Amino acid sequence: MATMVDVARSAGVSVATVSHVLNDTRPVLPGTRQAVLSAIEELGYTPNTLARSLVTSRTRSIGLAVAAISNPYFTEILQGVEAGALEHGYSLLIADPHDDPEHELKVGRLLHERRVDGMIVAPSADPDALVAYLGRHAVPTVFLDRVVETPPDAPSPSGRASASDRAGAFDQVCAENIEPTAQLVTHLAGLGHRRIGLVAGLPGLSTTGERIAGYRHGLAAAGLPYDERLLAHGDSESAAAERATATLLSLAAPPTALVTANNAMTIGALRALRERGLSVPGDLALCCFDDFAWADLFEPRLTAIAQPSKEIGAEAVRLLLDRLAAPDRPGRVLRLPCAFVHRTSCGCPDQPEKSTKGNVS
User: Fold this and answer.
1) Cα torsion at 350, 355, 359, 361 (round to 10°)?
2) Any residues with CB less than 8 A from the CB of 15 and at least 6 apart, and which?
3) CA-to-CA distance for 202 and 149, rounded, in angstroms?
4) pLDDT over 90 at 27, yes or no
5) Global confidence as pTM
6) How many CB atoms lie within 10 A of CB 219?
């Protein structure tokens, strides 16, 4: 079996240079790097990850805790995380916290005990216990999709609890939520709808709060009053959204248009409409937050907000690697723009599919 010494001899460099190429611990000239990589390929050298982790205190692994991995949105996030991790020589340990705070903490502990170099987490609606654990153990962490309001007494990622870094203890990356949701509402209002309902997500999630804020912002921009009876919580999943939609449809004055706040809830809403023999957009116009692969195959085709899910995953990896390289730097919150994908479920005539990126209200 080839050794690092064999690679160094074949490439005509020092063992230290081979180590720098393998571990990205120091810049290496492109020609030298290529010579080392060619020697590794030719000799079939396989680094001893366990031995290297004992020397560097790094395992070159990332823990990913994301609920509902079967959800197409989170599947695409996973693809972005995996691509970014592999590009930089990291492996993934994946766990599903099930959006349950107690299980979320257990998952965080297990990943930490596996000595991952850092974690990427889509937090639950009540992540305080996990946030406290990660801060207490100085685990480099990036929260994605949902924003966590770090408690004022939370330790920083570096383990120091100075007043200057408590406010931004963790890095976070997510999509814009407020303006894209408002855009769906104003679009429906522009088509003449005056009673626009919202099937909102699980209370406590930042995405739920922000999309409700966007819904209200869109109503205000269209000169429409907010009616709390037109808002029902679908708890971010299909069955609850079906019940929420049924509640809205049973109102004395039901909505003529509906916004669903994620892809799973869109499916639930469509089930509720089918159960009542109602058609989209003939009986009720529909717009949804979250585009997904088969949204264009529905009849009618679904008008949607498309989130940059793969980019969110890739940016989470980049933020985590930046944190590993500079543990004491201030935390950052990165928000990525969404795209408005105009199809026909809103009641507009069929047209070539087009999307508008950015925050247009």
Assistant:
1) -10
2) 4, 5, 8
3) 17
4) no
5) 0.79
6) 21
